[in-house]
Amino acid sequence: MSPSPPTTLSPARPGTDPGSFRDPAGFVFRRDGELYRQVNTSYRPAYDLLMGSGLYEHLTERGLLVRHDEADIDLASDSRAYKIIRPRRVEFIGYPFEWCFSQLQDSALATLDIQEAALALGMSLKDANAGNIQLIDGRPALIDTLSFEPYEEGFPWVAYRQFCQHFLAPLALMSRTDIRLGQLLLAILDGVPLDLAVRLLPFRSRLNPGLFMHLHLHARGQRRHMHHVTNRESLRGRMNLRKLLALIGSLRSTVRKLRWNPGGSDWADYYQRDSYTGTALEQKKKLVVAMLAGLDPGPVWDLGANTGEFSRIALARGDSVVSLDFDPGAVEINYRQMTRDGESGLFPLVADLTNPTPSTGWVNAERRSLLERGPAQTVIALALTHHLAISNNVPFTGIAAFFAGLTRHLIVEFVPADDPMAARLLSMRNHDFPDYTVEAFEAALSAAFTIRRREPIPNSRRVLYLMENGSDASTSG
Amino acid sequence: MIPGAAWPPRPFRRPAGAITRSWYSVDGPTPRPGVARNLSRHSFSKRTDPELTLPNIPPQPPVPLLRAVLAAVLLVVAAPGVLRSRQLAYIDPGSGSFLIQIAIATVLGGAVMARLWFSRIIGIFRRTRPGDDEPEPTDDVESG
Description:
heterodimer, A: alpha/beta, 7-stranded mixed sheet, 15 helices, globular, B: mainly alpha, 37% helix, 3% strand
């Protein structure tokens, strides 16, 4: 392995987003820390139609499309520029395989709502990439302003296949086969191939008319016409708006009827993971509130967030909270609570810290790894370190290095070996963890952090710490 | 693979007088034990070999009825759209998706129209009933 990457792999223009190269209509770039999008001259008719037809206002008022301002054209990266726009900042980019079932479902429905509105105003979505939908103000919205094209009556929807691969197939698999199959989207960038999806779906999925048509029949059609060559002009006049709207309606009702509930149907009392007595939990909450009160939390990452109870405490103080857990059920409950209460700034995320999302796509730069999407200003890691240290065998020094690369402020809980939860993990291991002591924990973390507060949690044997990055940090929190 | 077996497998030659497998029997009387039926009258009628050399076809599982019916209905309705595709110009990896989309949308569009007409007809009868208000116009295009 060569120690440094070859320079040819870096993007052509400095500042250009490495994941933004496919669309000839424009691209995203960064200048002085601000994010801009260049609209190329070739996209001018479509951009003018988007802004002039009322579609932009319609979608942004309903929170379905990211707002933008037009910026100075002198910021243009090259001579192809027609406009430079500055989209509203999205606090955190999550990827479809990191979303819970309901978030993927809501994103699919948002895509169909956008397409229906676009058709009504003479435009159509030219792609249906799930990654283009992100949470803005707690609701899924399209972040790629250049996704529209003028609608040409008589032609089929160009993004139908992509919609089925990015949304319908993974949703059907998560709902009808196994929730973990959402992870297929990590391995395959352009959505789940339909022939694979129909092989993994149970036979009875054919009884659902929507799944039968849009997945089973669709996959069969693809196979049958695999070597088929079709001229675009030969498709003219074979579709009309009425048929297209019926297709969108069918996709919507198919997506909407798919269901997944954590732990079966009675998910309301699904998750009770902590071993706290009621009073200890209340004490812990008070301590976390007190610790957060003394600092400017900034962007918060709550690692091992469960259903997001402490994320919400942090959200009251910080601007955004990434609420991360490896259990899709916990994240599902977290997301549902968020949508029910209309919370914004919260990003429930399915992620495994022992195997975090890698960088994927073209030259490993289209989608950024989980840690590249940091750092956070504050990390909350409650009831987490015993999982990393005991279940995953990470030494305390490794845990300290991980936190040090991720955050400035750290609120972390130590769970001693005689705590019921840690004891349960230890009982399943056949070797001892002699170094699993509070002294070793403090020593390892002190190498990277300064311990600001150390609070034993009443009615338990656990200890809560507030730490600050830097072993000789001069500023207090 | 069976050790020592030849590859590629040789065609299966049915010994004279063997009983015909039931899945070859398309029609006709039940074969009597020990007497071979002349299959040339059925699906293998074009076969020129008078000795009836059959390829070693394993018995096919029966196509589940519901699947067959659903597929047949949809494909028959959709067939005009799918079959009219022409082979022209450039390679488009999404061809199959386009063609099946047109077929599905045609079926769904027809269903929506049928529902619309049905609700209008029902509406006419409703309007004639005394005491009824004007019925709500139906603009629901959603269908399953």
